[in-house]
Amino acid sequence: MLWLGADPHAKTPSSAYEDWTESACFDSAFQRALWSKKPEILTQFLKRPIPAKMINVILASAGHHNRPDLVRRLLDEGADPNFINEDGYPILHDFIHGLTWRYANPTTEERERGLQALELVLKAGAKWAPDERNLKWLRRDFAASESKILIPLLELLHRYAAFTPEHLHELTRTPAVRKVLKGVSRPRPSLFGQDYSLPPPLPPPPAVETPRRGYWKRHWSQR
User: Which pLDDT score is estimated for 223?
Assistant: First the structure.
């Protein structure tokens, strides 16, 4: 389809039915490729130029996908590290949330790449002054995070002065967050709540041998 001239950045409805167009989710093939975790598809898309109007939008989406190579390219092409997305959140919100989301269970490699991507936007000058509601949400995610993620994350935020000292204090003042900073992490919950898995099948009962019935023979007078 690329060879035929398809635009991977064109937003299309998620449903082919006209009746569902109003309620359908409009997204681009490029953004779907980010969520699908199929690097071979994204590699083909990255061989082509990225439209200037999509650079900031893609940077906001990249915060959830641990792709420092994509973040570096977007910043080199002029992406704004303090861009505000359509929901009113800055770039840092997506990068921090992508690392501390309570239902995520990243591998060691994904965690390292996520921290590298975060450092790239911090080096580029990303800042955030969260309000009280966002501070509460961040503390909740920090308390449910893991020490091996939260400690380097806060070190990066402090090193590049992305938050004010007052905001960093507010983020780390609760006992639940301090517990994580001391190395005590809670297990990550399942995305779908309790895992309802079927119990293992019971072993079959031992076979019971049926006693052999004797052979009945008619009396000679009944033959």
Answer: 60
Angle of the 68-76 helix axis to the 55-62 helix axis, nearest 10: 160
Q: Which domain holds residue 101?
A: 26-189
Query: How far apart are the C-alpha atoms of 183 and 161, rounded to whole Å?
Result: 24
Specify the pLDDT at position 57: 86
Q: What is the pLDDT of residue 46?
A: 80
CATH code assigned at 75 = 1.25.40
Whether 194 shows a pLDDT value over 90: the answer reads: no
Q: How many domains does the chain have?
A: 1
Residue 13 placed within a domain: no
Question: Cα(16)–Cα(68) distance, rounded to whole angstroms?
Answer: 34
The predicted model gives 83-105 an average pLDDT of: 86
For residue 92, CA distances in Å to 30, 109, 148 come to: 21, 21, 19
Dist. CA 92–CA 102, nearest whole Å:
17
123: Cβ–Cβ under 8 A, 6 or more apart, which residues? Answer: 160
Q: How confident is the model at residue 189 (pLDDT cuts 50, 70, 90)?
A: low
DSSP string, 128-175: ----HHHHHHHHHHHHTS-HHHHHHHHHHHHHTT-S-HHHHHHHH-SH
Residue at 159 is within a domain:
yes
Do the domain assignments include residue 41? yes
Question: Is residue 142 assigned to a domain?
Answer: yes
